[in-house]
Design brief:
Strand content: 15-25%
Mean pLDDT: 87
Shape: globular
Strand order of the largest sheet: 1-2-3-4
Radius of gyration: 14 Å
Number of helices: 4
Number of strands: 4
Largest sheet: 4 strands, mixed
Structural class: alpha/beta
Length: about 130
């Protein structure tokens, strides 16, 4: 990651400026814990976690602590396309306070390597 970015800057987390009833400190904690959970899920063909690959597009935490996640895959024909959203849901459900999780798979916009963090580029010798 670039030095001037926090982990929360890499994913669109809705609720922070939309008047959420969740206290900001709690929203920050859940967001950080979700990012940590996402980092436990790896694309089996690439030795980098899905968060650093930039596969998580959007996370929305509503006032009832339901987490909606929009994510993608590196390619529509990915062999784990049917499994990875479940892995992400399982990881998100480990976060304290999360009451429900819905993961939506999208290919709009299509993923490309520009979404990867510097950490991912380094791991893949792309820097």
């Amino acid at each position: 990651m670039a030095d001037d970015m926090t982990s929360r800057d890499m994913v669109d987390v809705s609720g922070e400026e939309t008047g959420s009833k969740i206290p900001q400190d709690e929203l920050n904690r859940i967001t950080d814990d979700l990012i940590t959970a996402f980092k436990t899920v790896f694309d089996p063909e690439i030795p980098v976690d899905i968060y650093e690959l930039g596969l998580i597009y959007k996370v929305d935490i509503d006032d009832d602590y339901k987490v909606d996640i929009d994510m993608t895959l590196t390619a529509p024909g990915c062999p784990v396309a049917g499994d990875m959203p479940g892995w992400v849901e399982t990881a998100a459900r480990t976060v304290d306070g999360v009451q429900d999780v819905e993961v939506r798979l999208t290919f709009d916009p299509p993923w490309d390597p520009s979404r990867m963090s510097d950490e991912a580029r380094l791991a893949l010798n792309m820097l």
